[in-house]
Design goal:
about 450 residues; alpha+beta; five-stranded antiparallel β-sheet; three-stranded antiparallel β-sheet; elongated
Length: about 450
C-alpha cells in the first residue's frame, strides 16, 4: 500500500446505496486499491492491519470498532447502474465483501466473482485519492465527491451529473424516507452541507441545480468544476489556469474582452453553458464559439453598449449568425490557395536542392578521379559530332568540365547514368521529401 495514492473505482461501485458509514466507505476504497492488480488472478487478498489503519488515518485503539466496520461490508449490498450512466440496461447486486478474516494482525478478504470481474479494468470509472478521502467528516460529502469525480471530464476539468430524482439521491446517500422528510431540511443538512465540505477540503467547486414540478423540487443535478488551486480564503478568486497555458478558445474569448474567469468557465462547461433549449446539434464547440465572436465583431461601432454582455448572451442564447458559414467557406478557400502556393514553392525548392546537391557530388567524384573524367568526356564526344567540334576550343578535359556548363551537364548525366550507386542515397532522400509534398498537394486539392 505504500505506493498506492489512488484507487480506480468502477462507476457501479460509486453509485451505490450508501448504507455504509464514512469509515466503511474509506476502508473499502483502501481494500480495493490494495487488491486491484491481483483481481484477475487471486481470489483472496491480504493487507496488514497496521497498513490498513495507517492508510485510513485511524488512530483509535478500539480494534473491535474496526472489526465491526469491516464485518458490515459483508452485509452491505452493492447495486449497480442506479443512475444508468453507461446507458446499458443491466441490473446487478452483490455484497461489498464476500468474506474477511483477521489473523495475527493480517487481514484476508475476498470479493464475489462477479464483483471481481466488474472492478478490474472497468470502462467507466473514477480515480479517487486515498489521502484526500481521509479529510472528509461526512459520509454524505464523501459519497457526493465520488459521484462528482465519476462525472468529471478531466480534459476540461468540468462535469455535471444527470438530474437525479430525490428518491435515488436518498438511495445514493443511504437515507430512508423518514430522514429529513422536509426538502428544506434535506437541502440544508445534507445537500448544501456536503457541497460546502467538498468545496472546503478539495480543489472542486460544486454547485447544485434543482428541477421542479410546479414548485416542488423533484430532482437535483450537480455541476463540478476543478479550479486547480485549493481555496485559501473566501475572498480569494480561484485560478483556473495557474500555469498560464490557456486553451485557444479561452485566448480568443479574452481577446474580445472576456475575463479569464468567464472565458475559462465557458470553456469548461462548453454546451452546458448554453441554455438547454437552445443548444445546437452536430456542431463542434470551437466552431460555435467562433461563430458568436464573429457575430460580435460584425456589429456596427457604437451599436453594442457592452461587448462582453453581448457575447455572453449570444453564447447562452445561441443567437444566429448566418454570415459566419459563408465567411468560413471563403476563408477556407483562401487558406487552401495559400497552402497550395506554399507547397508548390516547397516542391520547387526541393527539386532545385536535388539538382544543386547532385552537381556538387559530381564535381567531388570527378575531382577525385581525373581518369574517370577523361573516360566520361570521351564517351560524350563520341555521341555527338557537334560537341566534338567544340572540344578543340579548350585544351584539357578539366577545363571543359569546369568552364563549360554544356560539357559539365553532359558529363554529369553520363556519370549518373553509368554510376547510379554514387547518387542512390541523395536521390532517395530528396525524392521521398518531394513525394510527401506531392501527397500533401493532392490532399489539399481533394478537400471540399
Amino acid at each position: 500500500m505504500k505506493d498506492k495514492t489512488e484507487v480506480i473505482k468502477h462507476s457501479a461501485a460509486i453509485q451505490i446505496q450508501n448504507s455504509i458509514s464514512l469509515l466503511q466507505r474509506r476502508a473499502w476504497n483502501i481494500l480495493l486499491a490494495n487488491a486491484y492488480e491481483e483481481l484477475p488472478t487471486e481470489e483472496e487478498h491480504q493487507i496488514s492491519v497496521p497498513e490498513l489503519t495507517g492508510a485510513l488515518g485511524y488512530t483509535s485503539r478500539n480494534d473491535a470498532h474496526l472489526r465491526e466496520a469491516l464485518l458490515g461490508l459483508m452485509t452491505s449490498v452493492l447495486e449497480w447502474n442506479l443512475i444508468g450512466k453507461d446507458n446499458v440496461q443491466v441490473w446487478g447486486a452483490t455484497t461489498l465483501l464476500a468474506q474477511i478474516e483477521i489473523e495475527d494482525r493480517t487481514c484476508t478478504y475476498s470479493y464475489s466473482p462477479v464483483l471481481r470481474r466488474r472492478l478490474y479494468n472497468p470502462k467507466i470509472y473514477a480515480r479517487i485519492s486515498l489521502s484526500l478521502q481521509n479529510k472528509f467528516d461526512s459520509k454524505h460529502a464523501l459519497a457526493l465527491w465520488e459521484l462528482c469525480l465519476d462525472y468529471l471530464d478531466e480534459s476540461r476539468n468540468y462535469g455535471e451529473t444527470p438530474h437525479i430524482p430525490l428518491e435515488k439521491y436518498r438511495k445514493l446517500m443511504g437515507m430512508s424516507e423518514d430522514m429529513y422528510p422536509l426538502f428544506k431540511d434535506l437541502n440544508k443538512y445534507v445537500i448544501k452541507a456536503s457541497i460546502k465540505e467538498i468545496n472546503d477540503v478539495t480543489d472542486f467547486n460544486v454547485t447544485v441545480e434543482y428541477a421542479r414540478n410546479s414548485r416542488k423540487v423533484v430532482a437535483i443535478k450537480f455541476r463540478v468544476r476543478r479550479v486547480l488551486q485549493l481555496p485559501q480564503a473566501p475572498t480569494v478568486q480561484p485560478v483556473l489556469f495557474p500555469s498560464g497555458d490557456l486553451p485557444d478558445i479561452v485566448k480568443e474569448l479574452m481577446d474580445v474582452g472576456l475575463s479569464e474567469q468567464d472565458a475559462g468557465e465557458i470553456w469548461q462547461q462548453q454546451f452546458a453553458y448554453v441554455h438547454a433549449d437552445r443548444r445546437p446539434r452536430d456542431v463542434a464547440f470551437d466552431y460555435y464559439i467562433r461563430e458568436k465572436v464573429h457575430l460580435l465583431r460584425k456589429q456596427e461601432p457604437g451599436k453594442v453598449k457592452s461587448k462582453t454582455g453581448f457575447l455572453l448572451q449570444a453564447i447562452k442564447q445561441n443567437w444566429t449568425n448566418p454570415d459566419y458559414a459563408a465567411s468560413q467557406k471563403e476563408k477556407l478557400q483562401q487558406d487552401k490557395s495559400a497552402r497550395l502556393k506554399a507547397l508548390q514553392a516547397q516542391k520547387h525548392q526541393l527539386e532545385e536542392g536535388l539538382e544543386e546537391q547532385t552537381s556538387e557530388l559530381c564535381k567531388q567524384i570527378v575531382a577525385n578521379d581525373p581518369a574517370l573524367l577523361e573516360t566520361l568526356l570521351q564517351a560524350v564526344l563520341n555521341e555527338s559530332p557537334v560537341i566534338r567540334a567544340l572540344y578543340d576550343e579548350v585544351k584539357t578535359p578539366a577545363q571543359h568540365y569546369e568552364n563549360s556548363p554544356i560539357f559539365a551537364s553532359l558529363v554529369d548525366k553520363k556519370l549518373m547514368l553509368e554510376y547510379p550507386q554514387h547518387f542512390e542515397t541523395l536521390c532517395t532522400t530528396y525524392k521521398e521529401k518531394i513525394a510527401r509534398v506531392e501527397h500533401e498537394i493532392a490532399i489539399v486539392h481533394s478537400d471540399v
